[in-house]
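Hey everyone, long-time lurker, first post.

I ran two proteins through the pipeline my lab uses and got sequence/structure pairs for each. Pasting them in order. The first:
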Amino acid sequence: MANQRTTTNGNRNPDPIVVKPVPSVDEDGPFGGRAIDKGERPRGPAGDNALHHHNPGVGATEFDSAEGNAGETHQQVPEKGDHGDATAHLTDNHGHRIADNQNSLKAGARGPTLLEDFVLREKIFHFDHERIPERIVHARGSGAHGIFEVTKAIPELTKAGLFAKKGNTCPVFVRFSTVAGSKGSKDTPRDVRGFAVKLYTEDGNWDLVGNNIPVFFIQDAIKFPDLVHSVKPEADRGYPQAASAHDTFWDFISLMPESMHMVMWAMSDRAIPRTLRNMEGFGVHTFRLVNAEGKGSFVKFHWKPVLGLASTTWDEAVKLAGADPDFHRRDLHEAIDGGHYPAWDLGIQVFDEAWAAKQPYDVLDATKLIPEEEIPVDIIGRMTLNRNVDNFFAETEQVAFLPTNVVPGIDFSNDPLLQGRLFSYLDTQKSRLGTTNFHQIPINAPKCPFHNFQRDGMMQTLVPTGRANYEPNSLAEAGEDGGPRECPETGFTSFVANDERNDGGEKLRIRAETFADHYSQARLFYRSQTDNEQAHICSAIVFELSKVTLEHVRNRVMSRLRNIDEDLAKRVAAGLAMDLPEKAKAAKEPIDMALSDALSIQKQEKPMFEGRCVGILYAEGSDKAMIDEIKAGVEKDGGTVKLVAPKVGEIKVKGGTLKADGQLAGTPSVVFDAVVAILMPDQAQELAKDVGAVAWFADAWYHCKTIGACGGTREHILPKANIEPDAGVPKPEDFLKVGTRRHWDREPKVRDLA
């Protein structure tokens, strides 16, 4: 283990922090004694403990910085340090000093996490109960009901009844969410999106609780509270809300090389999706499928949007947050309400341990993905959302997703992040939803029968009858109802074989060396993007780090970026007007992997109007026939059209009258995927005097959207907006040919990218 000595007081202020000494007490002693320090209020027994003079996290110490077995950062009290200094030592809530705060206790380096790890359990338990009743993460969510249909049976892989036959169906409930923000935050910040699906199967509920990004920031669940604390509003000031562009997040990330792959995704356009309907979903972890013969296979789950992937630009996301903070929630609700049911295909990547052992990464590492070029995603089902919730609180707010909700035929792997989630989710739902009986809330209740001997508890709504509340029992012999019994044949049984290259003979706090490559897949992701998408990533990192006030944190991040891609690091440094620092030492030197088009949004672009919304701007005298023609063409391809005008009432146009769906002043172009202007020359000339109208076109131009522009618009408005028409600015009669595209080749002309 390589040690690098770093001396710091751990505080922004270079002056040392003075910790107030423990006040003395009178002769009555600590139990019932009182403080005799002048001006201090008397204390009782409850105050005579370590809490009355010590604020957790306060203090400063010297520490050594070291790398662990997989390159993780350890900040440790030096071997020859002052071990009598209580405030220098990290402890649990009961005062027990902690030797390793980076790794949970496992049965072998790659084995399952052990229940006896009281450090992990206390840390996660305390974290789960920090906030009530709002979710600690994923607080802002949008939900909908739907149906899942199996399109390909896979009985050879799993004994799960759902997948036994093509055509099998089950109801679903899906909750999409942002991660960092509160319930009252905006829909469109740069953030990971939760993608949680509850499938109400005949064998019980199966909760596939994932994100719109296939990897995660950390490898071990013991670091989850630290990650979330760092990205939440800073503890002393309560801001920024729903934002990662601040000191504490990037400070933490810069000390966690394992996060670099996820940082690439979070800084990409994946983190600013156009709509919830245009997101992929991922199970993130490696799970298992188990068939009727007990044979197990590793599996990764994918949700592929039928409408394809789409994102916003950063400027769009910001303006949408102001124009409509509920943009994503509204879009989902209105799409379903209008009969435009969004759908996703469920796909799987299946592999075995022999294949996994040959890979340059560990399949149990949640910071890694399996490139689709290596193992193609096999589509096995389709989910369609076709019903909005009846009551937001009763359903979307009260729904409880549990990774432990699996059915026979689906099982867990030893992924240490997944193992921690298996404990954490149940615990946090008990805190939010009234402890034991949250499963009786209708949105959480299974749609198949459930029978057990669990009784009573807070908010019990069922009324069990009879005496049978235990088993074994013999009450049936006396003619009484004896209740249900276990079933080895059809009940859930855990996968027996331990073929994950693990020695279960040791209990270790260690991270497997196979988890040590933190940069190869980050490099793969970055290099697989288009030039335009790479520019977005670079610009996003520049923006985020520009908000970081700690220069050493910015330097540390850039030293990590050099391990991903040298050009990436140079572009970020140039965007910040900073010199490149030395490259950070990698625990394992990164390798070049074959590029993957599946990682790029733009390479998977679907040129279609379906799922997209076109705004048509008109005014008095506009050509109704042309408006109707464009509207019909868009709607024929499955898209929607909104009419925008200076006034929302009926306006006389050539060929009749039209009533707008939105007023120009209150319907910015950012809410549309493409725009068309059909105006009489005099009306265009008048609108050219309106800064808001000019901005309507300027934003669409700036955001690389198609702008169908009539002659009057070209003559009077576009020059005011500094728009030099390109292939993405067709005449209205040609709009349908190019209106499905974003014109990314325009972007270098409209804004500076890193």
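...and the second, right after it:
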Amino acid sequence: MQVSDIFGVGAEWIQQRSMAARGELENGAPIIFQPCQSLDNAGVLLLLPSLIANGLLSYKNHYHTIEKVFYSLDFTVLLLCFMFLSRIKNPEQLKHIVSSEFGKLLGIDKIPEAKRLRIRLSEISEQKKADEWIADLFQFWLGDKENQNFFFYIDGHVRVYHGKKANLGKKHVSRQRLCLPGTNQYWINDSYGNPYLHIDATVNEKLLEMLKSEIIPQLELQVKGRISKEMLELDKSLDIFTVVFDREGYSPKYFGELWQKRIAVITYRKNVKDQWKEDDFKEYQVKVDGVQTKMFLCEKEIELDSVKMREVRRLTEGGHQTSIITTNKKLSIESIAIYMFSRWCQENFFRYMRLEYDLDKIYQYAVKEIDKEVMVVNPDHSKLSYQIKKLSEKINRKRAELYKIQQENCFDDLDNTSSYEKKQAKIIAQLETLKQEDDNLRAERQKHSYKIALKDMPSLKRYNQLVQERNQFINILKMICYRAETSLISLIPS
């Protein structure tokens, strides 16, 4: 039997590996760097200072070391970061690289195989410290800013699930234009796209529900004490922080409730029907994502659901008016436009992370039960609503067909009238049948409530959820890597 049969191809540190196998290696394998030339992926070493500056080593405050193993916790964390920065997106892809070559980047004889790395990830996730770590990093990334306003961008992302163990509700995946089973993640980023954290929805909660139950309470906790009470009392127009999101979170009544806590909102206005006079718009020079652009803007004070807000509209060259509403009383009209239209930096973040970091990769497929009292959308109600929608589309097509025949009859010879009448009678009969079917479906839907408790769902269809601890740990490392890349890019002259 050869050494490679025991420790794998490329293993050179036989003594240390033997000690680890006997449980005699106290602090993991020693780190010994050797002179190398033309080493693949060596450029990632340039990012090591940036990784540390963005809080990578703070995991030591939350995770305890894994004792008497060859690949220690410190080594595993750094290996994962170097993997992601080298675009090795998951442990399975380690099979396609030379383990001894990549090991030289980390001062070791060879990196672990995919199976060993997955085992180490399991041991780390068993400590269940990811929530503590990300909360600590949130404070670290906010920095020592006091008496300053904060802007948080909030948007949802669907991580599609292709497994069979979990029974997850279907979500609309806009990039695929399909409804697929998956998990909803709501990400919080800054105005440059740098991530702070993400919160996983339990079942199918919408953005407005998550704002009320999870996101705003989390942000209040993180920003607590950063704006002094004296300043808030002296300046009644001062906000603690501002959240920016799209129309999914639209609720003027809730925006009023948030302002009572001195939390401001910037979002798009829904159901805009009126048009402002084009003469009211003025030209402004606005810098969005580093690009100077010309915008025609106008501002008015409005009241929605008894809540006073500022409305800013942008007039495009085609005459379209994009409406933005905000409860922030301090921002200039240009700043409101900048912060709203900079929301695309978060969309760019999602795209970049999906393509470069495999953001949708699921690392843990274990499932857990959900509280059976949780209210969810009734699948039977949704199914009937979908059938009614499709039937309505069919009815509208038949009505359009009937209208076309009636118009042709008006302009055709009288000799052809009987032929047109037969066609009309046939379509009218079909419409009556479809209308009766529509009435039956609507009557059936009334028997099913829109929402039901989870316990009332059939056991085979009852929703559960994925255990997120390992996925959360990996996402934190990816967030640190993204921030490290961004920090390095900012040092390079444009």
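Reply from user beta_strand_b:
Welcome! Quick read of the second one: The chain is about 40% helix and 20% strand. Residues 3-127 form one domain.
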